[in-house]
User: What shape does this take?
Amino acid sequence: MGERAEWLDEHEDEVWTGFLETQVLFWRRLAQQLQQETGLSEPDLAILQALLAAPGGRLRQYRLSGVTQFEKSRLHHHLGRMAGRGLVAREPCPGEERGAVIALTDRGRAAVTAALPRRAAHIRRWLTDPLTDRQRADLIGISAVLLAGLKGEEAAGAAGGEPGGVPAGPAGEGPAC
Assistant: This one.
């Protein structure tokens, strides 16, 4: 990339400000609504949704770090709080003294299946419904371009792995102990 001016020009600043304000307000409002309506935070919901989609409702803890973008210690503590609320359970990993599997409990399954329709309604209300079909298609394309660039930089920095240097596994991969 060539060198550019230190400051954003007027148009770049307009793009940045619009993007930032929209993201901040959207995520704040979504998080507040979900917390009020379901008692779940967005990270809770992301973890529960990943477990719901996983074979047997179980994943190794390091697989969940990519879902939340939490560092190892923060994820460990968050999962401990979720376990304390009965949403997930830590299970030993057979054959691995220090390994653990995070399992979706019945309570967690009930919570996520009740929360996902509410989350979908909010996403429709604040993101997809206000846009025309063309604007939604444009947003998909713009997001793909930005995400590809970010993932490319991340892969170059982490030698092709997920955040924290954990290699990505096959889609739908369950707990390999």
